[in-house]
Design brief:
heterotrimer, A mainly alpha (315), B alpha/beta (401), C mainly alpha (286), A: 315 residues, globular, C: 286 residues
């Protein structure tokens, strides 16, 4: 038992060590780039997972990321506001939009809500294209200045890593806390009627969780925009939302660790298949189907099931 | 059975991860000249990207017939890597990153005005020879981007040559600009307006419309444009597919004026397939009614034999020639050092499928300041019956003005 | 905007709306009778277009013959998909959505591989334009709208007057009770699914002769179809028709007035309004 724990913790330490020293050991900017995108994807996937825990499937996650991205970019380029303030404001704006849209649409059941999120993504894209002033139209906005102090890729790597770690802790606490909040969240999916009969305002909790998930998407979008230093409406179109959904499904829907696992592995796989024909869609699509049919709890589910069966002496 | 599938899936993902991090970047090959093409292979602009890649492969095959690329006494084989940028800048950026730092190439081609504009500074900093398949000279061809070569005639030349002749021969006075809703479209409209302004007599630009590439229903735009009663509708940099659909709906709506594409090279039979008789008389650039050289005719026959159709997408010839120029420059400089090749290439003038070819840009009316714009004899034509190219006039560049 | 332009865009919108109705009808059949959320519906529409294209251009079918053949092919395809995939996720909304999303991605990818990425169009049997007052209507659009109208009428007759239609209606209300009354659930479900697929397929075939086809065209019509069935009311055919025509008109008029991008915003705003004010849609059941 103790031996198992020591093994587990040392593996964890090794992984952490590799992650923290990656830019120093691997000098290839392209690989560092993949990791940065991976960290941002992890945050996006975790946000979507939280929304899923609240009982809703959102196709609009990329749109909320876009709101954060455009907000912070416009604040920096047009009003010369320093990045960190713009970053926080971007999150605030995203939260407000999520509050507004979520407040209206979360009251309806599953499929209706999902369709509105789908439509919302198209609408945001349409707005960015239709109003080149200030959004830059289809060409988007280019030449976004560096964040002062973070000029090299390596520095950005650490910033993205910190962002991912902090977000992870926040989400993990939210989802797993033994506090009443965490239990309410879990219960939302399982038995809403019961909770309502207990006097818990499930709608408020649900909106709150939705806002948190979307706000982090906004933060991630802001960082992505200042990293790529150019954004356009296609970056945050529906296919991005679909990618995030596939991350979550592969890792295990409704599970924060699952979001991390899914985003990590599929960002890598996605990069490998990048630009070479249309195989990314094929692989992602096949993955979705296989997971739904054979492995509904995702990769995480596979391992936890194995662990349960092992402890029961079955394998 | 279920467990087996699950184990396989997890194992697959794990192996993929390890493979991707550690193995892929180190896969390199000796004796191979790698060239990467970042072009739209899907979506509305695929009608440009796919033929371009085919033409690159053709010149590589032609060099292989001679034994390969000869540099430093050694013969090199070719590898054409095709990445799909879906005509978007975000994809282009990522693919460019991959090409320069992942695949580590020194020579690549990017297609699409907006894509080339974001690629140019990166290629400049990293000394990558950037063959830009874009027509916007004012943004792309300037001394800041000495490593960027534009593979097409500049989009200024269309209006410079066509507007005066259309005004003289057909009495055109008012022009409506209809362009796709992206950087290429905005740039083209800007250039058209500028050129219209400096011409004397000056045509009147009465409308400026934009549509999303890949739109199928152009009727809203058509209704707005026709309400202003233009003599000429200039579709600027519209793709062949969009042009065809647009012309069909334009004709159905009863438009009887003139129409042209002043900045994009459209394959006449693609346009005819979509628009039928409504395509007749459409003014196009870059389309030769008769082959200017025997080599041009041979290329045409070769392409049609391999890929079918009745007309070769015109930008294939441009693609072929520009990559050929690059290979010539590499062999002449006898090195893969991109700075040396850049110097050789920039000063190269050669015999092409079109006739004499070189890079232009320092001319006064263009005013780019550097010679990096592909130039060759410029046919002015119209679409005739059945999609054939009907010769109208032929102009030789350089321009004196 | 002058009156002439307004009426022209209205008529255009009406024609387009008819095709939206076809796609949406299929979707609502699948959802209300079989409780399947089909995110691959747009791809069925796309495939229908391409099947018709190949029938007409490669196998030299007559255009009017190709239409029912296309419907038949996709009808059968629907049955196969049902047996392989849909049957395993019925009832579980999330799984169904993810599964059909996966199918959609795969179909798109296969589409690009097999059909190429370039636009093609189906040669239409009639050409020319019909002039009516100051309005131009291409004859092919009128033909497509008429075909759509015909199919909707047939569907109505099927559901209202035939035995299998009655069974569909009873399953929609209460599938368990229906089974007790001897309704062959499996058979009726399969027919409903087949019809749903066939309708989407013919939408694609009709569009292919008016505009162009490429493997990416499925996404936006599918979104519009979902919006329509929500606006019209899930399970209501009349509501679907009403909402479909209305959305077509709104799309067209707003696009002419303000540009195509803002047409999305207007449609979205209306969707939100419906959800707040009248969640069951125009004619849906409470």
């Amino acid at each position: 038992m103790l031996r198992n724990n020591i093994l587990k913790y040392s593996i964890l330490l090794v992984i952490l060590f590799i992650i923290f020293t990656l830019p120093l050991s691997i000098k290839n900017p392209y690989i560092v780039h993949i990791f940065i995108m991976m960290y941002l994807n992890i945050v996006l996937a975790m946000g979507l997972t939280m929304i899923f825990k609240a009982g809703a499937l959102s196709f609009g996650h990329a749109a909320y990321a876009s709101i954060g991205a455009y907000t912070s970019v416009l604040l920096v380029t047009m009003l010369n506001i320093p990045f960190w303030i713009a970053f926080l404001l971007a999150g605030a704006v995203t939260a407000l939009v999520a509050l507004f849209i979520g407040g209206i649409t979360l009251g309806v059941r599953g499929i209706y809500f999902t369709i509105t999120t789908f439509a919302f993504t198209e609408v945001m894209k349409g707005i960015y294209i239709a109003y080149p002033n200030p959004f830059g139209g289809p060409g988007g906005i280019r030449g976004i200045p560096h964040i002062s102090g973070i000029e090299t890729k390596e520095q950005f790597y650490y910033m993205a890593l910190m962002f991912a770690l902090i977000s992870f802790f926040i989400f993990y606490k939210m989802a797993h806390s033994k506090s009443s909040f965490g239990i309410i969240c879990d219960g939302l999916k399982l038995n809403e009627l019961l909770e309502q009969s207990l006097g818990i305002n499930t709608k408020t909790v649900r909106i709150f969780v939705f806002i948190v998930g979307c706000t982090f998407a906004g933060f991630a979008g802001s960082i992505m925009a200042h990293y790529l230093r150019q954004i356009n409406p296609e970056t945050f179109a529906i296919h991005t939302s679909i990618d995030i959904i596939v991350f979550c499904a592969a890792g295990g829907f409704g599970n924060i660790i699952g979001a991390v696992v899914g985003a990590t592995s599929l960002t890598m796989i996605g990069e490998l298949l990048y630009g070479i024909g249309t195989y990314k869609s094929l692989v992602f699509g096949a993955m979705l189907i296989l997971i739904v049919l054979f492995l509904p709890e995702g990769i995480v589910g596979f391992f936890s099931r194995k662990r349960i069966l092992k402890s029961k002496g079955k394998i | 059975m279920e467990k087996l599938i699950k184990s396989i899936m997890v194992g697959f993902i794990g192996a993929f991860l390890l493979f991707s991090i550690f193995v892929v970047p180190s896969l390199a090959q000796e004796d191979v000249f790698k060239f990467i093409s970042i072009a739209p292979l899907s979506g509305p602009a695929a009608g440009w990207g796919i033929p371009a890649n085919r033409s690159y492969q053709y010149i590589f095959d032609d060099y292989m017939k001679k034994g390969g690329l000869l540099v430093g006494g050694k013969r090199y084989k070719f590898e054409l890597i095709q990445y799909d940028n879906k005509y978007q800048t975000s994809e282009t950026m990522t693919l460019l990153n991959k090409a320069i730092f992942g695949d580590k190439v020194k020579f690549l081609s990017v297609m699409g005005q907006h894509n080339c504009v974001v690629a140019a500074p990166i290629c400049e900093t990293n000394k990558i020879i950037h063959l830009a398949f874009a027509s916007g000279g004012e943004e792309l061809t300037n001394p800041k981007f000495s490593f960027t070569y534009r593979m097409m005639n500049s989009n200024s030349i269309g209006p410079i040559l066509y507007y005066p002749e259309l005004m003289k021969q057909f009495g055109v006075k008012t022009i409506a600009l209809v362009n796709p809703d992206d950087e290429g479209g905005y740039t083209t409209a800007k250039v058209d307006k500028r050129i219209a302004g400096v011409l004397d007599p000056s045509p009147n630009i009465i409308a400026e419309e934009y549509y999303v590439r890949g739109t199928q229903d152009f009727t809203p735009v058509i209704l707005r444009v026709m309400a202003k009663k233009p003599d000429l509708i200039d579709m600027g940099i519209s793709s062949p597919g969009d042009t065809g659909l647009f012309l069909k709906q334009l004709g159905e709506a009863g438009y009887t004026g003139l129409h042209m594409n002043s900045a994009s090279i459209v394959t006449t039979d693609v346009v005819w397939k979509a628009a039928g008789k409504y395509a007749k008389g459409h003014f196009v650039i870059g389309a030769f009614a008769e082959p200017p050289t025997p080599e041009y005719e041979a290329f045409t026959k070769r392409y049609l034999k391999d890929f079918g159709g009745t007309a070769v997408p015109i930008l294939s010839y441009d693609g072929y020639e520009c990559v050929k120029a690059l290979l010539m420059a590499i062999e002449k400089a006898n090195t893969f050092d991109s700075t040396v090749v850049n110097d050789t290439l920039g000063n190269l003038s050669w015999t092409s499928l079109f006739g004499p070819a070189r890079w232009m840009g320092k001319e006064k009316i263009l005013g780019y300041g550097i010679n990096r714009s592909f130039s060759h004899p410029y046919p002015m034509s119209r679409i005739g019956e059945g999609g054939k190219v009907e010769k109208w006039m032929l102009k030789d560049l350089p321009l004196e003005k | 905007m002058s009156a002439e332009v307004f009426w022209q865009s209205l008529v255009n919108g009406l024609m387009m709306g008819m095709i939206y109705v076809l796609i949406a009808l299929g979707l609502t059949l699948l959802y209300s009778i079989m409780h399947i959320v089909n995110f691959a519906h747009g791809e069925i529409y796309m495939l229908g277009g391409f099947v018709s294209y190949y029938l007409v251009t490669q196998l030299e079918f007559n255009y009017f013959v190709s239409l029912p053949v296309t419907m038949g092919v996709l009808f059968v395809a629907g049955i196969i998909l049902e047996k392989l995939f849909f049957s395993r996720v019925r009832g579980n909304f999330m799984h169904c959505l993810l599964l059909t999303l996966g199918i959609s991605l795969i179909f798109q990818s296969l589409g690009w591989t097999f059909f190429g990425t370039e636009d093609v169009s189906i040669p239409s049997p009639i050409s020319g334009v019909f002039k009516f007052g100051g309005i131009f209507i291409p004859k092919q659009r009128i033909l497509s709208a008429l075909i759509g109208f015909l199919l909707v009428g047939l569907l109505y007759l099927l559901i209202a007057k035939t035995k299998i239609g009655r069974h569909m209606r009873s399953i929609e209300q209460d599938s368990e009770a229906s089974e007790l009354f001897g309704v062959n659930i499996n058979l009726v479900n399969m027919v409903a699914l087949g019809i749903g697929f066939a309708l989407a397929a013919i939408g694609g075939a009709l569009i292919g002769s008016i505009f162009v086809l490429n493997p990416s065209i499925g996404l936006v019509p599918m979104l519009k179809a979902f919006v329509i069935i929500i606006m019209g009311g899930l399970g209501s055919i009349g509501g679907c028709i009403l909402a479909g025509l209305l959305l077509g008109i709104i799309d067209s008029v707003v696009a002419t007035l303000l540009g195509a991008n803002l047409a999305y915003v207007v449609a979205f705003a209306i969707l939100i309004l419906i959800i707040i004010i009248r969640p069951r849609g125009f004619l849906g059941h409470a």
